[in-house]
DNA sequence: TTACGTGCAAATAATTTGCAGTCCC
DNA sequence: GGGACTGCAAATTATTTGCACGTAA
């Protein structure tokens, strides 16, 4: 492994599909061995229905409640982890205790606005990481995180 | 900003000094406006006395207790954050709720062994990140994290 | 029907905070 | 001596778990 750019990255699982979104979602879930329950379909709809997103469990829970899909916070956590295990989401570690989940499942890069706790995708950039070192014996690289931390410019 | 390699990175604050280590430590603290209390000197000693390290608050607390420097976990947290604010440490976000503190304060790169929660410096490597994108208007890039996640090789 | 899911509330884990007592300058 | 520092315990925050009940296949 030596080189990788943002352009190589796979897109999110949902955008690869066509046809009836709800039907596709159910298929997605079944393929992963997950029953397409009301909650999972609703959360999947919120997550994959509008392009790439970054959410915390708490924010997704708020959204679901607003969308009149009452679901417990615990189930949101369960579902996010099931989706992650299934490969529909990727967990992004940025700082502190908050876990962010990203619908763009490939290795890719982020801006992180420290003061707002906001994650921003770096898309279609020429950003390149080269000369990756060999992993230690018996290990393999399973992912790469690149986070550029932002702050308001001092003036 | 376009290019940056591990070789450009500054070393840790402590290794830049010479002479009596304890004296230097106290100087370091005073310079940062921190009183050189017993606990802070002891923690500084543990942190900067043996080259670059990565610690969690909990591990450092264990070490301090073993080294017969009883200090409360709360004070360890306080001290780690004070050192970070002063620029002696850098916080590394890798995953979950754990915060790692690194005595190497420059932007640099890590391996992270997911199963063991272990951080490994990538030192003296040719790893290069180029073509960094411009930050959004009014923002500036204040740091970069690159984490390569490792797992035991499947065989 | 029946195993898988869900919701709730309680349990954990990591970290922070309030405050009374202690220590450096 | 006085404000900065520390330790303890309680409070927060983010997340997980146990278990009775509900529901998709």
**Helix/strand-derived class of chain A?**
alpha+beta
Output the number of helix runs of chain A: 4
On the 0-100 scale, what is the average pLDDT of chain A?
A: 83
What oligomerization state is this entry in?
A: homodimer
Helix content of chain A: 25-40%
Task: For the structure shown, list the relevant keywords.
homodimer, 155 residues, alpha+beta, DNA-binding
What is the fold's blueprint, element by element?
The structure is a homodimer of 155-residue chains.
Chain A (H helix, E strand, L loop, with lengths): L2 E3 L15 H11 L6 H11 L5 E3 H10 L6 H14 L3 E4 L5 E4 L5 E6 L4 E5 L5 E3 L8 E14 L3
Parallel strand pairs in A: 5-8
Antiparallel strand pairs in A: 1-7, 2-4, 3-4, 5-6
Helix pairs in contact in A: 1-2, 3-4
The structure holds a DNA duplex (25 and 25 nucleotides).
What would you note in describing this structure?
The structure is a homodimer of 155-residue chains. With 155 residues, chain A is an alpha+beta fold. Chain A has helices at 21-31, 38-48, 57-66, 73-86; strands at 3-5, 54-56, 90-93, 99-102, 108-113, 118-122, 128-130, 139-152. Chain A has a three-stranded antiparallel beta sheet. The first copy, chain A, has a three-stranded mixed beta sheet with strand order 6-5-8, with no helix packed on it. A two-stranded antiparallel ribbon of chain A has the order 1-7. In chain A, a hairpin with a 4-residue loop joins β5 (108-113) and β6 (118-122). Chain A starts with a strand and ends with a strand. Chains A and B meet through β7 and β8 of A and β7 and β8 of B. Chain A binds a DNA duplex (25 and 25 nucleotides) through α2 and α4.
């Amino acid at each position: 492994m030596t080189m990788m750019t943002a352009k190589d990255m796979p897109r999110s699982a949902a955008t690869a599909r066509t046809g009836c979104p709800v039907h596709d979602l159910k298929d997605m879930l079944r393929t992963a061995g997950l029953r397409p329950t009301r909650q999972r379909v609703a959360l999947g709809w919120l997550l994959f229905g509008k392009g790439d997103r970054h959410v915390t469990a708490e924010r997704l829970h708020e959204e679901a409640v607003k969308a009149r899909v009452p679901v417990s916070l615990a189930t949101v956590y369960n579902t996010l982890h099931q989706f992650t295990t299934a490969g529909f989401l990727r967990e992004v570690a940025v700082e502190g205790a908050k876990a962010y989940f990203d619908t763009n499942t490939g290795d890719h890069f982020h801006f992180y606005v420290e003061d707002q706790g906001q994650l921003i995708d770096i898309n279609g950039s020429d950003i390149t990481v080269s000369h990756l070192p060999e992993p230690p014996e018996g290990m393999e690289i399973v992912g790469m995180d690149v986070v550029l931390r932002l702050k308001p410019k001092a003036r």
